[in-house]
Amino acid sequence: MAEEIPKDELYAAYRSKIHPDDIPSLDKVIQNAIEKGEGFVYEHRVLCNDGNIKYVVGIGEAVIDTHNKFNLLMGTVQDITQRKIAEIALEVEKERFQDIVDSTEGIVWEIDFATMQFTYVSQQAVRLLGYEVEAWCKPDFWVSNLHPDDKLWVVEYSFTRSQRLEAHDFQYRFFAKDGREVWLRNIVTVVAENDKPILLRGIMVDITARKHAEQAILKTTERLLQLEKFINLTTDGIQVSDETGYLVYLNEVASERSVSYTHLRAHETKANLVCRLLLE
User: Fold this and answer.
1) Which 8-state DSSP code applies to residue 267?
2) How far apart are CA 141 and CA 121, in angstroms?
3) Contact 56, 44 (CB under 8 A)
């Protein structure tokens, strides 16, 4: 049969000063120590006579007699209020920092340079790429998901710049968990010790939409240049006007047939020249 929590006057007086929210868990710790006849360490709050609350740590053990029966509790109580206040303040700052990191539109990360494994990845990794944070900490995770056409130069570039302790900024393609090809911009800083890199820290930003827009503009520009070359090869004069009738484009043949360059005013285009002469 389990022994009961001691009811002597000294312990009862001490127990009456314990914060009510901490009593149930403290009773469990004491009961376990009594039943197993072993030591315990427990942190809890104490209500002071002036109304303040102190944090203390109790270190003790249950003393069992020769008949294997509980005899008494022995131990000490130490005031750890200042330490706990510092720990609580640090925890609040960590939570605040984590909130800022998790709300940042990018994946904040840290890598151990010796192993080249991630030691920290923010939750945005899940939203942007679909991989759980734990997956990033596996060996070769980052390299194995790089686009094949980018893998060699990206690894070599980042490793070389890191060895030189140089911050660097580069763009590459990375496969998301669902197979999507995502363009990432990686902004990296190097943490050094004794002139050697020990940590890499940075942020990865999804620039896929921007890259697609740039590629679309490039393709459109290439098509327009090809079209212009074709237009300029023809012997026909071609002119283009907007919906108001304003002349916006003339090919070379149309320009040469319409006007002489001697009519050009300062800073005037050929198209505007033709339009002006037609109106005069």
Assistant:
1) T
2) 12
3) yes
End-to-end CA distance of the chain: 115
CA quadruple 267, 269, 273, 276: dihedral positive or negative?
negative
Q: State the virtual CA torsion across 17, 20, 22, 23 in degrees, nearest 10.
A: 80
CA–CA distance, 124 with 106 (Å, rounded to integer): 6
Residue 74's closest CA among 10, 147, 169? 10
Residues 6+ apart with CB under 8 A from 244: none
Digit-coded pLDDT (tens) for 52-101 = 889 999 888 888 777 777 777 788 889 998 888 888 777 777 776 666 66
pLDDT in tens, 116-169: 999 999 989 999 999 999 999 999 999 999 999 999 999 999 999 999 999 999
Query: Which amino acid is present at 64?
Result: I
Exposure of 273 by Cβ count < 10 A (0-12 exposed, 13-18 middle, 19+ buried)? buried
Regarding pTM above 0.70, the answer is no
Tell me the CA distances in angstroms from 83 to 18, 25, 55, 79, 88, one per residue in order: 19, 21, 9, 9, 9
Instruction: Return the residue matching tokens 């940042």.
Output: 104
**What stretch of H or E contains 177?**
none
What does the DSSP 8-state code read for residue 66?
A: T
Q: Which helix (H) or strand (E) holds 31?
A: helix 23-36
Q: What is the DSSP string of 204-257?
A: EEE-HHHHHHHHHHHHHHHHHHHHHHHHHHSSS--EEE-TTS-EEEE-HHHHHH
Nearest residue to 251 via CA among 224, 279, 276: 224
Number of residues in the chain = 280
One-letter amino acid of 246: Y
